[in-house]
Design goal:
The complex is a heterodimer of chains A (184) and B (568). Chain A is mainly α and 184 residues long. Chain A contains 6 helices and 4 strands, in the order H-H-H-H-E-H-E-E-E-H. The longest helix of chain A has 24 residues. Among the domains of chain B are: 170 residues, Rossmann fold, CATH 3.40.50; 143 residues, no CATH class. Chain B is built from 16 helices and 17 strands. In chain B, the strands form 4 sheets. Chain B has a 6-stranded mixed beta sheet, sandwiched between helices. In chain B, strands 2-8-7-4 form a 4-stranded antiparallel beta sheet, with no helix packed on it. Classes of the chains: A mainly alpha (184), B alpha/beta (568). The structure holds iron/sulfur cluster (4 copies). The site of one iron/sulfur cluster (SF4) has 16 residues of chain A, from helix 3.
Chain lengths: 184, 568
């Protein structure tokens, strides 16, 4: 009886030690939930959610401080993804927050005075230029957040909607046959 | 007799090949203009190297390959470049792409060109020649051939030359084999050399006895060793690379594995032909054989200059007036062309003129009854009914789990489906949706990295600035201790003197703001009570500088708040 007790105590101590050790050894840096939420967010870094970037918004969601329907660039699908991830109900966008078509910023290089203000506003360093030099946007890296538009003193930045081209073109969901079924 | 193997499934659609094999390959008439897309191959679009208004010669490079995976584009005849702009192209999207429009001058004047002896030429040079000649896979995949003809010794055992041509209506490879078997085999020999392959197996479906005979004859005549022409059973899609490899060698190329890893490489017969023309004669890929069939007076194969508008081509076969659309490719895998004005490309193996009489619209789709007939015929051994279900429900993760990307879009499943469900359309939809998501995920990842880097950079700059400032103040204090000046604020005098020109603006702003605060709080009233002329002058100078700095600070905007750390 006593020996059985000792064995059990020994096992529990051993397992406890293993668990404690692995908790330290395999400690996950940061909050994994924040990372997961951040991975779903579109990384436009526009601040339209009311937070200074996607990561802070992810942290706010993780803490339960923010709703899941605050990110217009993520679109309806983004809300669905967040709802799935967090196991909560889908919530549609509120009044006044609606996703816009994708766009990239464009600097009218004739008008640009080289003030560097847009450069400081861009969250992803997608603008190249230097003081008193013409600035330009690396279209491939622009997220379309529109943060560079307001600071420009000469209003030379505009958003160009990203049209579809052959490489980004998608096959449509086959709808015609379904319509025919309905007609029968 | 070589033992042949079977692949899973397959169907027997009516072949409709006899219509277009009755006449020899005809040279298509020189069109009024050529619309040559710069993106006719897998990989990066070629970059135009000619100007509008420039006269170009036949065979001249007009688009240079860009990047590793790309191919050159050439002027198909001599003439004048009339435009380099976005034009409708032979693509199912109906979207325009960059094209060079060429007005032929009718002289068909060649640029100087000559071939090489492939036995005397280094493999890298041969591959470079293929790339510069714009040779790509002509079976429909248009993958640059130079990228496919790279191999180490003993890596590739078998080179499969694909002459199966399983898709109904299409006969361009059949006619090419009948009429130009010798050059095909010589091209195959070059490819064998490049790949160090031991044997060449030429697979031809047994519904093409003339082609088989011609190829066998050519093997004997030219005494090609290691080459064998093999008749394979007619079964759609036996011309798929994986399927043909399976039938000829018994090797099952697993999902996600390249056939080269299993020791097999596969080229189309027309590609082998072009390889020979490019290497032995220096002729770039300027034309290809196109079957024009369907709703036409006399279906026939034409040798067509790349860029020839489809309208002008089909007119030569007598396209009937009730034609409603042009299908590029066959009835199983082909796509509708957006317009008759698009130019023939390297991928255009066949144009089927379609009318509702010939191709009645499919009956309405009914719900899937899970009869699994589709699974029985799927050559990729998939479960098409499940894939359909997932694609329809937009459950793309599940679709990928069920190996959506192994689907070769052969259409066998849709062909047998008793509910007439356009299955392939669902798979194409799901695939392009998944690609789109991957692109977006990549873009998001890039943005995340750049944003995080930016935050880190800003933090680092702040710290560096603070450190510099602290050092400077320490230096100033030391200076003050060693040589006490009459100046009540030595830091003021010291700062501009020691400031290095690069980091001045922000630091001066910071220092100025800090000093202003200090002065306002304590020292100012006392200092101004009894001023020497010297001090007064100094204060004036400082005031002026301050005013200037305030102005600059107002310009620099809210982004540059002075860091708190500069107080200490
Ligand atoms: S609203 Fe903008 S900043 Fe906020 S999560 Fe969405 S993309 Fe990121
Ligand atoms: S360039 Fe403008 S719109 Fe584009 S990411 Fe930068 S700030 Fe946003
Ligand atoms: S053949 Fe058509 S009806 Fe039958 S299981 Fe496949 S998709 Fe469903
Ligand atoms: S289209 Fe795809 S799913 Fe259908 S039979 Fe062909 S390979 Fe199989």
């Amino acid at each position: 009886m006593i020996s059985a007790l000792w064995v059990m105590v020994g096992i529990s101590l051993l397992l406890g030690a293993v668990l404690g050790f692995s908790a330290i050894k395999f400690k996950v840096e940061g909050n994994p939930l924040v990372e997961k939420i951040d991975a779903v967010l579109p990384q436009t870094q526009c601040g339209q959610c009311g937070y200074p970037g996607c990561k802070p918004y992810a942290e706010a969601i993780a803490k339960g401080e923010a709703g899941i329907n605050k990110c217009p660039p993520g679109g309806d699908e983004g809300i669905h993804k967040l709802a799935d991830l967090l196991g909560v109900e889908y919530v549609p966008f509120g009044e006044g927050t609606a996703p816009k078509p994708k766009a990239v910023a464009f600097i009218d290089e004739q008008t640009c005075i080289g003030c560097t203000l847009c450069l400081q506003a861009c969250p992803v360093d997608a603008i190249v230029g230097a003081a008193k030099q013409m600035h330009t946007i690396i279209a491939a890296e622009c997220t379309g957040c529109e943060l560079c538009i307001a600071p420009c003193p000469v209003d030379c930045i505009s958003m160009l909607p990203l049209g579809e081209d052959i490489s980004s073109w998608k096959w449509q969901y086959p709808t015609i046959p379904l319509v025919q079924v309905a007609a029968q | 007799m070589r033992p042949l193997f079977k692949f899973h499934g397959g169907v027997h659609p009516p072949t409709h090949k006899a219509e277009s094999t009755g006449r020899p390959i005809a040279q298509a008439a020189l069109p009024s203009k050529l619309v040559i897309p710069l993106h006719q191959h897998v990989g990066n679009r070629a970059v135009p190297v000619v100007q509008v208004g420039e006269r170009v010669l036949k065979g001249q490079v007009i688009g240079r390959p860009e990047g590793r995976l790309s191919s050159a584009v050439h002027a198909s005849t001599s003439g004048t470049v009339s435009a380099i702009d976005m034009q409708l192209v032979a693509h199912q999207s109906g979207l325009p792409d960059l094209c060079i429009t060429l007005i032929p001058d009718g002289k068909d004047e060649w640029i100087a060109h000559s071939g090489v002896d492939y036995r005397q030429t280094a493999h890298t040079d041969l591959r470079h020649l293929l790339r510069q000649a714009g040779v790509v896979g002509l079976g429909g995949a248009v993958f640059p051939s130079d990228m496919k003809s790279y191999s180490h010794k003993h890596q590739i055992r078998t080179l499969v030359i694909n002459g199966a041509e399983c898709e109904p209506y299409i006969t361009c490879d059949d006619m090419l084999m009948r009429e130009r078997a010798g050059d095909i085999l010589r091209g195959a020999e070059v490819l064998r050399e490049l790949l160090y392959a031991e044997e060449v197996l030429i697979g031809i479906e047994d519904n093409k006895p003339e082609a088989i005979a011609a190829m066998q004859q050519a093997v004997l005549e030219d005494k090609h060793a290691h080459m064998e022409v093999i008749a394979v059973p007619t079964l759609y899609p036996g011309g798929g690379a994986k399927q043909l490899i399976r039938v000829l060698t018994g090797i099952e190329v697993a999902a996600g594995v390249r056939s080269t890893e299993m020791g097999v490489q596969c080229f189309n017969v027309a590609t082998a032909y072009c390889v020979w023309r490019a290497i032995a004669f220096g002729e770039p890929l300027l034309s290809r054989i196109v079957t024009v069939t369907g709703n036409v007076e006399h279906a026939q194969n034409f040798e067509v200059l790349l860029g020839t508008p489809v309208d002008e081509l089909v007119a030569q076969a007598g396209s009937k007036p009730d034609t409603e659309r042009h299908i590029m490719g066959g009835p199983m895998m082909g796509v509708d062309l957006p317009s008759g004005s698009v130019g023939v490309t390297k991928a255009t193996n066949c144009i089927i003129e379609a009318s509702s009489r010939l191709f009645p619209p499919p009956p309405p789709a009914l719900p899937c009854i899970r009869c699994t007939r589709c699974a029985d015929v799927c050559p990729a051994e998939l479960q098409p009914q499940d894939l359909y279900w997932f694609a329809k429900a937009r459950d793309f993760g599940k679709a990928q789990e069920y190996h959506l990307f192994d689907c070769i879009e052969c259409g066998a499943c849709a062909y047998v489906c008793p509910s007439h469900i356009p299955l392939v359309q669902y798979y194409r939809f799901a695939k392009s949706e998944i690609w789109q998501r991957e692109r977006e995920a990549q873009a998001a990842e890039l943005a995340r990295e750049r944003h995080e880097f930016r935050l880190m950079r800003i933090e680092r700059e702040k710290q560096e600035k603070a450190e510099r400032l602290a050092q400077k103040e320490k230096a100033a204090l030391a200076a003050k201790a060693s040589a006490p000046a009459p100046n009540p604020e030595p830091a003021i005098a010291a700062a501009p003197a020691t400031a290095d020109p690069d980091d001045t603006l922000q630091m001066r702003i910071d220092a100025a703001v800090a000093r202003a605060k200090e002065q306002a709080a304590a020292a100012q009233p006392k200092n101004t009570d009894a001023l020497t002329a010297e001090q007064q002058a100094e204060i004036d100078a400082i005031e002026a500088r301050r005013a200037k700095i305030r102005e600059m600070a107002a310009h620099a905007g809210a982004d540059d708040e002075p860091p708190k750390s500069n107080q200490g």
